[in-house]
Each structure stands twice: as structure tokens, then as C-alpha cells.
Amino acid sequence: MAVTSLVVCADAKSVQVLSRVLQDLSIEVEHCGDTNAAAARLKAQRFDVLVLDCADEAAALQLLGELRTSSANKSSMTIAVVDATNNVRELFAHGANFVLYKPVSPDRVASSLRAARGLMPNERRRKPRLPVPASATIAYADVENTTANLMNLSEDGVAIRSQRTVPPRCKVYFEFSLPGEVSVIRLSGDVVWQDASGRVGLRFSRVPQSSRAVLDGWLQQNLGRQQQVSPLVIPDHASGDPVNPSHTGLGLLSVPAADRRGESRHSCRLGAEVYEPDSTTPQRCTLSDISSGGCYVETTEPLQTGTAVEIVVRTEEVKVRVHGKVQASHPGFGMGVEFTSNTASQREQVKQLVACQDAAEEAAKQK
After folding, report:
1. Strand 283-291 to strand 319-330: parallel, antiparallel, or no bridges (unpaired)?
2. Is 95 in the same domain as 202?
3. Whole-prediction pTM
4. How far apart are CA 322 and CA 347, in angstroms?
């Protein structure tokens, strides 16, 4: 099922801009012109995302209060559209997750919603998904026989990482072999969602009987091991609890609103150098997520689980050197690293890096 949003706004031009950007992010859009109509829709249907114009702040606060006490939509992500007259602190206190500052221009909305997209659900999955360390050959539109990495797989669909931007709502034809299987699976799927990092979610549209037998057999066999194989769960550094990778996309530390823990996590694109113990040769990687407890490192050659690492990150403001241990390794994609900040200096460096990301996010909101 596709990600759904409800836009509550009376200004036609703003609605047009918001709807276009949401649709570009593969999010279905429904519109209500006032909070009374929106309250009725929220009682009748579940929405993943609520975009709420707070021009009438009292009405907006009332709707937020109703939203957070409803059974169907209490975990929905809420984006408040505000201006200088709004009490942003009060909106956050009533359950808003993000604020989008007016004027509602295409560039500003696109930048803000792409940042929020990492914390939105990719799709509501009726079937469990498993990480799949494998590559696939895909074809779509006028592109033939290009490669993509499989990320996770279910009976109904698959998530891949593609080096190319896939046209929205197009049909993709691909083939791949599952780990431990000789037979090649050939099928087609429809694009459901896509993000700026190259991740694409597809819903299967046609699966030949022979491929269906191999797919179902592999899933059944491996789902039985899901609770016993440690790489399939990724520690949440704030609480010590496991995080189901079906919610995180191979361990990315950004999670949907319903699964958000107490520790603040930040989506980012930071260049990093990763060193193994006693090595002076860095592996140049990208941090795609960071918190005070750990980070996710994107690399096609992740280190083994349990490996101690040193990570060096340079920004315009600071140079940070932190130590950690690989907690989850996903060949072809990356690795989740838990910081082992044993000294006050190391803990302070992590705080500096997180603070830089906080400042960058706030600056992006103010633009």
C-alpha cells in the first residue's frame, strides 16, 4: 500500500506546491480546505503524513490534539506549515514532528520534505521483509540491463538501491538469484516510492509461477531464522532494543514516527574515513545517519560485525575522530556502527558533530 498524506490548507497555490512535491516523493495526496473536514477524514481513514497549515493556530492545535488521541492516526507524521506569528514551541508540544516555514515555494518545500522523507514510512507492508545481500539486473523505460542492489524482499515487493533515477510509477523488469539458490528469478514490479539516496520500492506486478516457487521457498526458510540470526536485527543505541530492519532499510538509523526512540537521529550525507585497527589506510565512505550513540556508514565493502573502527569526519566547522564497533554488516550496502566513546573528549566530539547536523537542519528550515 502506498504512503498516504492529508494536506490541510485553504490556500490553493500552497496546496498545488505541496501536492506536487509530495507526489514527486511517491506519496499519495488528499486535500481538505479546513480543519473540520480534516477531522472527519482522520476519523474515517489512516494517513501516514499530515501536512497542516497553521494560519489558524487555535484550530490547528485542536486538530493536533485530536490526531494524537485517535487510534488510527496517533503515530502519523505531522508537518506544520508556519510563519513568524506561530508559536512553534506550542505546536511541537501538541505533537508536530516538523515545521515548514512560509512562503511555500517549490524549492523550500522540496528541500524540507526530502529531509523529512527519511523518517516517513516507505510503504505499509502487509508481509514481513528480509534483508537480501544480492544484486539484480533491471530494465525500465529506455534503460536496458543496468544493475541495482537488492535491499530487502517480501512476497509482495522489493526495495533496491539504484545508481540511476527511476521514472516514477514506471514498470521495472528485473532478474536476480537469491543467496543459496541457483535458479534465477525473473519478474516485474511497479515503482511505489523513491528517495534521493537512490532507494526504490517496488510492488510486484507479475511473478511467473517458477519464480514464485523459488521466492516463497526462500522467504519461508529464512523468515524462520529471523529471530535467531543477529545481522537481521540492529541495536537501537539509545535503548539497547533491537530495531526491525523492515522499518529502517538495512539498518539506517532514521526510523518512522511510530518507531522513533528517545535519542535524536539525523539524516546526513557526510564524507568519512574509516580505519581498521593498526591500519593507516582509510576506507572512504559516506555517513547517511548519525546520532549520539552511533551512525550508519554506506560502503560496498562493510567490515565484519564486531570489528573495532576509527571514523574521521571533516566538516567546515569541525574535524571529528570517534571510535566505534560494527554492530551490523550488510555486504554491498553498508554497516551500522555503535560509538564506543569511553572518554569525555570522545563524547564531546560526537556531540559537536551532532550539533553541526542540528544547525544544518535548522538552517535548512529557515531558508
Report:
1. unpaired
2. no
3. 0.39
4. 8
Query: pLDDT at residue 9 above 90?
Result: yes
Q: Domain residues for 201? A: 130-223
H or E stretch covering 121: none
What is the spatial distance between Cα 201 and Cα 189, in angstroms, rounded to a whole number? 9
Q: Map residue 255 onto helix, strand or coil.
A: coil
> 3-state DSSP call for residue 323?
strand
What span, in angstroms and rounded, lies between the C-alpha atoms of 186 and 131?
19
Of 288, 338, 279, 345, residue with least CA distance to 313: 288
pLDDT score at 154: 84
| CA-to-CA separations, 118 to 2, 11, 102, 248, in angstroms, rounded | 15, 27, 22, 9
Residue 122 burial class via C-beta count within 10 angstroms: exposed 0-12, middle 13-18, buried 19 and up: buried
Closest among 182, 179, 175 to 147, alpha carbons compared: 175
Q: What is the CATH number of the domain that holds 346?
A: 2.40.10.220
What φ, ψ does residue 146 adopt, rounded to 5°?
-100, 165
pLDDT at 176: 92
**308 part of a folded domain:** yes
Q: Which is nearest to 46 in space by CA: 124, 102, 119? A: 124
Q: How far apart are CA 256 and CA 350, in angstroms?
A: 24
